[in-house]
Design brief:
The protein is mainly alpha-helical and 257 residues long. The protein has 2 domains: 93 residues, Orthogonal Bundle (DNA polymerase, domain 1); 141 residues, hpI Integrase, Chain A (Orthogonal Bundle), CATH 1.10.443.10. 48% of the residues lie in helices and 4% in strands. It is built from 11 helices and 3 strands; from the N terminus they run H-H-H-H-H-H-H-E-E-E-H-H-H-H. It has a 3-stranded antiparallel β-sheet with strand order 1-2-3, with no helix packed on it. The radius of gyration is 21 Å and the shape is elongated.
């Protein structure tokens, strides 16, 4: 709780990051609730990791748990509660994350899904497919962020704003959110789509995030410069974007001169 008050509740991290940290704090609470901070040793950490693995928890989730433990201990060290952050000594390469196989719906599947859902969901699906934006970015996009045909995305995963071009077919409203009829919360929207897609039996199911994959793969196949695409998608490195090359037969990374 001290960490929440001292860091999360003071706006020291982005709201989306704070939400993720709070989830991790709840997950690790049963393991560390009875321990004073100075009692958290490397042996305690490795025992925790083993217990999580036996529960079937993925390495990706465990790594997120370790991140919040490290943040708590770093905060504690800075405030004299412990001598140092022992998590700095743990080699997280021992918990490699297996990259999930990308699954992207084809355009016929997407078009059929748009036909079967309500107009507001259809607009969201088409928007995500034609912009490659993350769901949260799309839900938070506002008319005030549009200048001409350019949309500046302010709340990004990296924390760095970026600007993309609006799809040719889209006419922004005069005010308010660009996608006005949907909930702004990502989890609410994702859960709503998951519930909705179970009802769409005429087409293969896909996640909203898969539409971002569909956009990226289509752009690679069309010959788009991978560095330009990486900037458009807001990736931290072009290396992240290069994963799509394996899904576009015969394409390789090229840069503009």
């Amino acid at each position: 709780m001290t960490y929440c008050i001292g860091v999360l509740d003071q706006g020291s991290v982005k709201p989306t990051t704070a939400t993720r940290y709070r989830v991790s704090l709840r997950q690790i609470d049963p393991y560390f609730r009875s321990l004073p901070l100075p009692a958290i040793t490397m042996k305690v950490i490795t025992t925790f990791i083993t217990a999580r693995q036996k529960e079937g928890t993925t390495n990706a989730t465990i790594r997120r748990d370790l991140t919040i433990i490290s943040r708590v201990l770093a905060y504690a060290a800075a405030n004299g509660m412990v001598e140092r952050n022992i998590m700095a000594d743990y080699d997280r390469n021992m918990l490699r994350e297996a990259r999930r196989q990308i699954s992207a719906p084809d355009d016929a599947t997407i078009a059929r899904a748009i036909e079967l859902v309500s107009p507001e969901w259809g607009l969201l699906v088409r928007w995500l497919r034609d912009t490659g934006m993350r769901l949260g970015e799309a839900l938070r996009a506002e008319r005030a962020h549009v200048h001409g045909r350019d949309l500046t995305i302010h709340q990004t995963k990296s924390g760095r704003p970026r600007t993309i071009e609006l799809p040719d077919w889209f006419e922004p409203p005069k005010a308010g959110y660009l996608l006005p009829d949907l909930h702004r919360d990502v989890n609410t929207a994702s859960n709503g789509w998951a519930h909705l897609r179970r009802k769409i039996k005429a087409v293969p199911r896909f996640r909203l995030h898969d539409l971002r994959h569909a956009y990226a793969i289509a752009e690679i196949r069309a010959g788009r410069d991978i560095y330009d695409l990486s900037r458009h998608l807001g990736h931290s490195s072009v290396k992240v974007t290069e994963i799509y090359l394996g899904y576009a037969k015969g394409r390789s990374a090229v840069s503009r001169r």
